[in-house]
Amino acid sequence: MTNNILVVTLSNFGDVILTTPVIMALAKKYPEARITVVVGPRARSVLQSSPDIHKIVIYDKKAPLREKLKFIAELRRAKYDRVVDLRNTAIPFLVSCQKPSPLFRKFTKVNMRDRHLEMLFAVEGDIPQGSIFRFFNAKDEVFAMRALEAANIQEKRDWVLVAPGAATERKRWPVEYFTEVIRTLHQRTGKKILLAGTLAERPVAEKIAAELSGVAGVICGDLTFPETASLVAKAALVIANDSALMHLGFELGTPTVGIFGPTDHEKYGHEGPRFRIARGDAEQCSCESHKLHRAERSCFHGLGPEKVIELSLELLNAHHSS
Q1: Same domain, residue pair 308 and 273
Q2: Burial code of 147-185, b = ≥16 C-beta within 10 A, e = fewer?
Q3: Distance between CA 264 and CA 115 in Å, rounded?
Q4: How many domains in the chain?
Q5: I need a surface site. Which of 260, 276, 284, 300 has the fewest CB within 10 A?
Q6: What is the per-residue DSSP string for 119-150?
Q7: pTM for this one?
């Protein structure tokens, strides 16, 4: 009987979302187990509303040595039946564990979400089809609705939720393109637009909203991550750069268009009937970004509003008729 499971996840919001299928597969296979998850301090909120996680332990890689030793000591108080380490640290070998994930690993998958499940398979051998991770609870929904009312947004669901921000500037599709997409979708569908993201992304959202009087409501920075997740779950469509909200839309089963330029759509994109990848043709682009380090690439290879509008309407029409 498996009683204690330790999952070592990552530090950034989007990266942690990509590991949630591992947590749900374990919760489904071992419903009585106590699951402890190690996560970076910034992304704790991704996991905090989950009823399937018994304990969250914060690991701060920038913490002084004394704090890191306290962190290890806390983990060592428990004996684990399984340790699934998704960031390839020494943790599985510093704690008491019957079955750790391997230190040396060779992946056959390219996609990061698939790789995390591949690592779980290396520990378990068989993986059940996981349930949807519960990113929010009823209290989060109540507070999210109150925030919408405070922002004078009366609609309770079926908005188009747009996330024009991203962790870095280079991953952000041009503001004027988002504006054109929103204007066209509103004209064709009449749907209210929610501009979501972090407080740091609010100026970008407000710039878009200013061009679209009465069409878009700005909620960037107004909500916690679980509260935002509750809105994503009720949205008719999510349009986002390669970002946490794009991954969240996919995991919640909300129709989602992911906009890709400098980042690898095969590595960070998704497949499925409710997900579309919007990208330009890198081979036809004169930017020669293939000569640059990946961290320096910023080109969207000619991806314009027309393609994103087309994919958005395709998903909206399919979802409306289903």
Answers
A1: yes
A2: bbeeeebeeeeebbbbbbbbbeeebbbeeebbbbbbbbb
A3: 15
A4: 2
A5: 284
A6: HHHHHHS--PPPPPP----HHHHHHHHHHHHH
A7: 0.94
